[in-house]
Amino acid sequence: MSHQFSPEEQAVLRIVQNNLPDSLTPYADVAEQAGISEAQVIDLLCRLKESGAIRRFGASIKHQKTGWTHNAMVAWKVSPEQVDQCGRKVAEHDHISHAYYRPSSAVDWPYELYTMIHGRSEAECLSVVDDIMRDTDLKEHAILRSLKELKKISMTYFA
């Protein structure tokens, strides 16, 4: 069942969906813009998160500016019986930001578990691949390297 956002919730989400104010008191600043108290902003965001109306609320860091200049999407061949166990194991790794299971219907593409690996060098990314092969039953894989970033934005839910 979808959540029907109140006008107050929409007002706060319009403000925070882009960037929090660059301030020592960002929630107070959001509250001032939304016309409610800082406590109400915090409570509202917590309620939306706990109810599942919003999936996450956190910082988005431009990883390239922090030295994490390399990445690789690695697709892994995994049996249906091992998806959950292997998925949990790879998700624990510090260098992995995303792990997804996507069933494949293509005869020539046996890979169904996808991991996004980030590193400070290509060698570091490949080392993570080696770690995963050592620590799990995952062996067969395909490394998909980004050639060019074509689009990367945060979604705007309320204009």
TrEMBL record:
It catalyses: siroheme + 2 H(+) = 12,18-didecarboxysiroheme + 2 CO2. InterPro entries: AsnC_trans_reg2, HTH-Siroheme_Decarb, NirdL-like_HTH. Pfam families: AsnC_trans_reg2, NirdL-like_HTH. One of its GO terms (molecular function) is DNA binding. Keywords: DNA-binding, Lyase. Belongs to the Ahb/Nir family. This is siroheme decarboxylase. It comes from Desulfovibrio intestinalis.
